[in-house]
Amino acid sequence: MVNLNFKTDRPLDLIAVGRLAVDLNTEQINCPMEETRSFTKYVGGSPANIAIGAAQLGLKCGFIGKVSDDQMGRFIVRFLEEKKMDTSGVVVDKTGAVTGLAFTEIKSPNDCSILMYRDNVADLKLETSEVSEDYIKKTRALLISGTALAASPSREAVFLALEYARKHDAVVFFDLDYRPYTWTSDKETAIYYNLAAEKCDVIIGTREEFDMMEQFEKEKKTDRETAGKWFGHHAEIVVIKHGSKGSITYTKDGHSYTGGIFRTKVLKTFGAGDSYASAFIYGLMNGWEISRAMEYGSASAAIVISRHSCSEAMPTKAELDKFVKTAERIDT
Amino acid sequence: MVNLNFKTDRPLDLIAVGRLAVDLNTEQINCPMEETRSFTKYVGGSPANIAIGAAQLGLKCGFIGKVSDDQMGRFIVRFLEEKKMDTSGVVVDKTGAVTGLAFTEIKSPNDCSILMYRDNVADLKLETSEVSEDYIKKTRALLISGTALAASPSREAVFLALEYARKHDAVVFFDLDYRPYTWTSDKETAIYYNLAAEKCDVIIGTREEFDMMEQFEKEKKTDRETAGKWFGHHAEIVVIKHGSKGSITYTKDGHSYTGGIFRTKVLKTFGAGDSYASAFIYGLMNGWEISRAMEYGSASAAIVISRHSCSEAMPTKAELDKFVKTAERIDT
Amino acid sequence: MVNLNFKTDRPLDLIAVGRLAVDLNTEQINCPMEETRSFTKYVGGSPANIAIGAAQLGLKCGFIGKVSDDQMGRFIVRFLEEKKMDTSGVVVDKTGAVTGLAFTEIKSPNDCSILMYRDNVADLKLETSEVSEDYIKKTRALLISGTALAASPSREAVFLALEYARKHDAVVFFDLDYRPYTWTSDKETAIYYNLAAEKCDVIIGTREEFDMMEQFEKEKKTDRETAGKWFGHHAEIVVIKHGSKGSITYTKDGHSYTGGIFRTKVLKTFGAGDSYASAFIYGLMNGWEISRAMEYGSASAAIVISRHSCSEAMPTKAELDKFVKTAERIDT
Amino acid sequence: MVNLNFKTDRPLDLIAVGRLAVDLNTEQINCPMEETRSFTKYVGGSPANIAIGAAQLGLKCGFIGKVSDDQMGRFIVRFLEEKKMDTSGVVVDKTGAVTGLAFTEIKSPNDCSILMYRDNVADLKLETSEVSEDYIKKTRALLISGTALAASPSREAVFLALEYARKHDAVVFFDLDYRPYTWTSDKETAIYYNLAAEKCDVIIGTREEFDMMEQFEKEKKTDRETAGKWFGHHAEIVVIKHGSKGSITYTKDGHSYTGGIFRTKVLKTFGAGDSYASAFIYGLMNGWEISRAMEYGSASAAIVISRHSCSEAMPTKAELDKFVKTAERIDT
């Protein structure tokens, strides 16, 4: 049984905090980037994608983040507004920072890579003074994402958002989203991931991400031990993903749930995690059983990886319900 | 009653972590620095002073810190060894960092100031890889000091030391030691002070330091409310200092204790807090009642502020016992 | 009469030094970037464009520069090689630098702007040790571009290239190419532009660029006075551009030449200066009269601004000759 | 014959530009710094010492430099004023920079070393906007010192001062004063030393300093070749120092002069070069023959290395004249 206590009397369901970026997705697939000629522009960034996905399913979503004071920044805000998200917590950088870019390369459905532009990015310049306690009081849940912990002042802004969320009983989701290129050392990474995870209710990550967080431990932990460690802090739910082998969800009451995947035509692998998270969170916030929320997450991922973008590819509730009914499940 | 559970079977009583520095104390007192001509060199830095003071009283003390690879760094290590401290946790910087300097100016006993050299200092370059779990396992208590949280990688090293101390049941003392010039913003300061304080057993600071930590709260807290907040985390004892009006100590069981001060001939005010902490910790680690430990702290402070240096001025147990017996108490 | 003494016995005609970058040109024209959806990728950067343009006309061109160790860097080198340029002086960055990007926005033919990504770019990381005296000995002329002076170590690499060029009697062209966003202050800019210009034979820039270089002078100079100043150093030719009003070329012997422009269908204004320089240099290196070289420059510019890219749009000799014969001249 | 054309109608004889610092000279000599206990504070920095030495001999000296906004900075300005120097060109930093420190260690008269504090120093923050053309117009000569070229914005400020000096016919002295610890690479060093030296009338340095400047040459130069290279630019006099083997001065007319040294009781070697330069410049500015100016330089050096400080040790004209008459010359 899930023991997440979502407050009911709040104007927003979910506020995500962190990265707002731009994806430049290759228009020439099955081709190395040296030979591609053109790119299509989409809103990107893991917490942005998750919030967009959740908004697409019907949750009332807000965002706390920072965008560049240029065409890229304005493009992002405009897209969030088109998706009916509340952007009152999105501030505009005034220091000349740029929007982070992710150029995608699709050599084959299983050989995808990303070329990142992450120097002087606006999203990491979010400051504590730009995190509003009154705004966080308005939401039933907060979503944080690990990349926002990678540098000051964004790092401190996230810890302050966590503080306010705990103070006002917003449920906190932590999507680990570990991107090594953003960090200076893996030890520093582990320190801040752990400090943040201690304050979260639901932690979602890959086995490799949890391993990174446990690097100071002398012995390797099993999935169950890892989950148990976080139940000793504030976690109620821990999701550990094992790539194509599926994922396993642990709850504080001792249960665990194994998730399957759906058959789909893979165009690229980007966006699988974000779409999973958006639909899983949607399920939990609607009081569903863990298994059903997990299935909804898998279905959303199956849809997104068959499409060209991440953010624009997020399915509506109707699309997702139809997919769950008709798609073929695969044993993992 | 004090509920600190000091393990008994460990080779070290206290390991301090953080700043090792050099004080350059003016030889011309009651004179502005523009006119002074010469300086005497002493080991300095708040956690260094506290550990030296505790060692002087008979505790077995170690240190985790980093010194410059030059004459200043070697001078520091040598002095700690003369004081019978264990320096196996002190590493030597290899990046060209310097030892932090504090030039003192004594215009009058009550008009003292410090000119700091804190750019590119070795102490803030302590890394997580230089914090040994096995070393921390050997100590009954750990002392951290706020300045070591001011910058990476020292900041992460302190959080790792805290993690190990909690894992191995070492009692953790936190001397707030807030020096604004070391920090980039007071909001950043508060975030990390709070994250660290949540993991400590004994927190010692001035009212102003606690106020700084509470800057995100909408309402100002009383001393008792401040202490209560930390008892909600891991603290057992909270000491709040009010300058010349004395200090007040709160314990988790609801009691509070007011400390007095001794009459002394003040040469300068530097070192009062460090000497207080060293003797107070000594008392607690010997199982004394709070009031007696506080009185011992005050006596040590009274001695140190009458002398020229901080570190070399730390009294022995014999000196301190004699002072407590003979010195005059002042009502505050 | 032009008094440039091009050595005749060398394997290369022109080596350019400086920026190798990528242009991402909008595919939706007459539209703000907030609304554009896709971009086409081209090689860019002023000295790259000039060298490509000169190679396209038949000069044997080399390049001294630095590219990122990723798909963007490899794309650039490949393109230079397709244009038959010698890339033995192009080194690959190993520090994680990126390729500079220029996103273009074409709101109307006369309202074009560029969104730059210039943080941590490979081109500014060129080092003195990567500038080969033996390589510069092989060329009849060297082209430097102001942006490469914007930061260390590229700045020093350019000064060293200048030193070698002077030592080995290569004629030095300086295309001022002042881009304020790359520099920290306009005073710093002027200092280094002046130090470099003192060592050059041909200086090409806009009136605004020359004004920037004269900011320490108490009185504003006329074009003739500006040219005269540089003739007092090493210059033989100074070209001062006045935008749509055409340009004026001064030679050390006291003559001046006014250049006209051609009627063309303007798609965007980018690339006008680079194409002008490439054809003008081509003319000078073939011993043409100043006026003819200027006309060739104008013709090349007229062609490039009617096309979508800069680098790929550079005309061949056949195209250019045909254009000069058939196009309509406009009085300025 | 010396062909330096000193203007006669100017209120100042010499303006030095660059480093104003503090020396902390050990009070315990023949002792490693790990064991010394105290330091005396003096004004220091090569161009400061030279200007102070010249002022002490009677030249009217000014200074262009930047000091910290603290007791150290005020101490420096006060001392210059006591020495009757014009300090109207000395500006006070407002960014929190510190005064550079040099702690001296004298293990023996021939085993001296310096521990430098050069992070975030005020002297390197001098900006072009703080260099006044009107001020430089007032002086007969300008002295620059290599260390001021080590970083921006001081580097550009020196180039601007050079520009103004050349424009207003002030004779320019360049004391190479190469301190490796201040620079990031020796190639960068050589680039800027060469760019500056090309604009100077008198260049004074050690053989090692000239070697550093010639690192891009394929063959090692003799002293005469080195001097000849600079005579091809603007130099009239080149002084090449060979340590205890004395120095040799070349003039553009083809002559050279060998300098001897005086017997003295060496306390430490610091300050020899600065005192030499101050008296040598004094001689040149008074129209003395090269040999006499060199002898005066050697005498000043002999006096200063027998004394505890550099700046305060600079002899008066009376002291120096007496020393020259009575001291014993040594063959080198």
* Order of strands in the sheet with most strands of chain A: 5-4-1-8-9-10-11-12-13
CATH homologous superfamily (4th level) name of chain A: Ribokinase
Low-confidence stretches of chain A: none
Percent helix among the residues of chain A? 25-40%
Catalytic activity (chains A, B, C, D): 5-dehydro-2-deoxy-D-gluconate + ATP = 6-phospho-5-dehydro-2-deoxy-D-gluconate + ADP + H(+)
InterPro entries (chains A, B, C, D): Carboh/pur_kinase_PfkB_CS, DKG_kinase_firmi, Myo_inos_IolC, Myo_inos_IolC-like_sf, PfkB_Carbo_kinase, PfkB_dom, Ribokinase-like
EC number (chains A, B, C, D): 2.7.1.92
GO molecular function (chains A, B, C, D): 5-dehydro-2-deoxygluconokinase activity; ATP binding
Topology of helices and strands:
4 copies of one chain form a homotetramer.
Chain A: E1 12-17, E2 21-26, E3 38-44, H1 46-57, E4 61-67, H2 71-82, E5 90-92, E6 101-108, E7 111-117, H3 133-136, E8 139-145, H4 154-167, E9 171-175, H5 186-197, E10 202-206, H6 207-213, H7 223-231, E11 237-241, E12 247-251, E13 256-259, E14 261-262, H8 272-285, H9 290-304, H10 317-326, E15 329-330
Parallel strand pairs in A: 1-4, 1-8, 2-6, 4-5, 8-9, 9-10, 10-11
Antiparallel strand pairs in A: 2-3, 6-7, 11-12, 12-13, 14-15
Helix pairs in contact in A: 1-8, 8-9, 9-10
InterPro entries (chains A, B, C, D): Carboh/pur_kinase_PfkB_CS, DKG_kinase_firmi, Myo_inos_IolC, Myo_inos_IolC-like_sf, PfkB_Carbo_kinase, PfkB_dom, Ribokinase-like
Protein name (chains A, B, C, D): 5-dehydro-2-deoxygluconokinase
Function (chains A, B, C, D): Catalyzes the phosphorylation of 5-dehydro-2-deoxy-D-gluconate (2-deoxy-5-keto-D-gluconate or DKG) to 6-phospho-5-dehydro-2-deoxy-D-gluconate (DKGP).
